[in-house]
Specification:
2 domains; 12 helices; alpha/beta; Alkaline Phosphatase, subunit A; five-stranded antiparallel beta sheet; globular
Length: about 475
């Protein structure tokens, strides 16, 4: 039996038949708001609190240029669908009480893709979902409607709830969704998520796909339970200290999850760990820039930790390949033997049309870290979610050496910033003044601009 474990963001699956065909099991785990600057394996300055993740990095492949969207809901949507935000329509986090847009049921998610694989997959999602608006009919059914057999966890952030009252909400007073039924929980969210994941690993028939999405270290920052607070922080400590304590608690619980897996199963285990976006500005410490973290398309907002271990990684190392959350879907398809290029839309007005994916399988990169699936990488943020005029639309395209950022408002007025990634020097303008560039820089800018313009036209909401 092969076990595929993907640490990153969400989960999926389908029906439970009487007879089942074996297939590779898959576990996906995603943390929340824990950027490269807070992950020890990425060599940040100062103390870090991620020994579990650092141990994974020491035995696997570390991706140095892995990119998310700037915020959580958009990243989750892109990971689950293999499609950029402008296709699935979630451009930033979802305000669940007032939102008019969420992940459409016409989108094919990873568990729905797995129905095309050999084997009849059971799926479960535990922890944070945050791809649904509470204004839709039966929002608590959304994870199940997207292909999961089970969802046990929060539908959004700790302070959000379908029900009213029961305040002040927190990591120990929160609304838990249990397969479509909500209840109030006083169990520590991070511990509850890991408890549910361990239970799922014990109970699910094979083959299975499990998505484990931690809420930590998202706000509200707090003092963890005593057994997860070796740092001894108190409520009077700084926001930085509380954030670090919550990160440490999450890392400790990830260790408990991994330790719960049978050693024989672990021997053939592939792990992919991802964080959903960069560190929030008010948790970023010098020398890192607080204005260029979560919620921005600067490097600190969208370049995130990604670590892969297991049978697809011949030896530990690092890769500079340009990869994105949209690559997880086709990578898993490749692992389970599904031809992603042959998938079609299965519902809605575009039913039967080819499924437009933006990602690439990363199996070649895992076998040979010098490989690079793409020359240019794109990510974006916009508001409001859905089609129509956006108050702002921030995009970025980068190559191995340079990066172009375009911030555009609803009137079409934009500002471009062109960065040399080696020196962090940049040129700014609308449009840029190319007279100050060298010939090589001007050629690189032209290449990135052409890609930016092409994607603006190509990436339209729909299938």
């Amino acid at each position: 039996m092969r076990l595929v474990l993907v640490l990153a963001l969400a989960i999926t699956g389908c029906k439970k038949p009487t007879e089942r065909t074996p297939g590779p099991n898959i576990l996906v785990i995603i943390s929340d708001d824990i950027g490269e600057d807070k992950t020890g394996a990425y060599g940040p300055e100062g103390e870090t609190f991620t020994p579990t993740l650092d141990a994974l990095a020491a035995e696997g492949m570390v991706f140095r240029n892995a990119y998310s969207n700037p915020t959580c809901s958009a990243s989750r949507g892109s990971l689950q669908t293999g499609r950029h935000a402008s296709r699935h329509g979630i451009g930033r986090w979802i305000y669940p009480d007032t939102e008019t847009w969420d992940l459409s049921l016409d989108e094919m998610t990873i568990p729905e893709m797995l129905t095309h694989a050999e084997g009849d997959y059971t799926s479960a999602a535990v922890g944070k979902w945050h791809m649904v608006r509470f204004t839709r009919d039966q929002p608590t059914e959304h994870p199940l409607d997207q292909g999961f057999n089970h969802h046990r966890g929060s539908l959004a952030n700790p302070l959000d709830a379908v029900q009213s009252g029961n305040t002040p909400r927190s990591y120990i007073n929160w609304e838990k969704n249990v397969d479509g039924e909500v209840e109030w929980s006083e169990d520590y969210m991070t511990t509850d998520t890991v408890n549910e994941a361990i239970e799922m690993l014990e109970d699910m028939p094979e083959p299975w796909f499990l998505w484990v999405a931690l809420n930590a270290a998202h706000k509200p920052w707090h003092v963890p339970p005593d057994d997860l607070n070796p740092m001894g922080v108190t409520e009077s400590d700084s926001a930085y200290a509380l954030y670090d304590a919550d990160t440490k608690a999450a890392d400790m619980e990830l260790a408990r999850l991994l330790d719960s897996i049978d050693p024989e199963v672990r021997e053939d285990l592939t792990i992919i760990y991802l964080a959903d976006n960069g560190t929030p500005g008010d948790a970023i410490e010098e020398p890192y820039d607080r204005g260029r973290g979560k919620g921005t398309v600067y490097e600190g907002g969208v370049r995130v930790p990604m670590i892969v271990t297991g049978p697809h990684v011949p030896e530990p190392g690092t890769t500079d390949a340009l990869v994105h959350f949209v690559d997880v879907f086709p990578t898993l398809a490749d692992i389970v033997g599904v031809d992603a290029s042959a998938l079609t839309v299965e519902s809605g007005d575009s039913r039967g049309q080819p499924l437009q994916l933006d990602g690439y399988s990363l199996l070649d990169v895992l076998e040979d870290p010098s490989q690079n699936p793409r020359e240019l990488l794109f990510t974006e943020e916009f508001y409001p979610n859905g089609p129509g005029v956006h108050t702002y639309h921030n995009r970025t395209v980068r190559s191995m050496t340079h990066k172009l950022i375009r911030n555009e408002d609803q009137t079409g007025v934009y500002t471009d910033r062109f960065y040399d990634l080696a020196s962090s020097e940049y040129h700014e303008g609308s449009p840029l003044d190319t007279t100050t560039l060298t010939t090589a820089e001007a050629e690189e800018l032209a290449r990135l601009t052409a890609e930016m313009d092409r994607l603006k036209e190509e990436l339209t909401l729909g299938w």
